[in-house]
Sequence to fold (95 residues):
Amino acid sequence: MKATVESLKKALKACAEAHGAEFCDWSEDDCQVALKTESVPALNDVKMICEVFYGRSTMVETGWGYTTIYLDEGTFLDEVDGTLLSLALPKNVRL
Fold:
């Protein structure tokens, strides 16, 4: 699968649902999206999702009750590793 903003958002929405967190899309105004949680399991899944899409997770930070992903702080990899992505998502999620 090709790495795109749309596929990244789908993965993060699925992650938010799996963790019972609200997904916030502020990408049009602030180039960021967030999960309304700072839980360690959600943070780890978000970091893994960013690793799969960007090859790193330095664009993820937590604070004020949110796990925030800054979309403008990286270049996507050419392809998403589907096996690694599946480890960070619930079993029944297909992108």
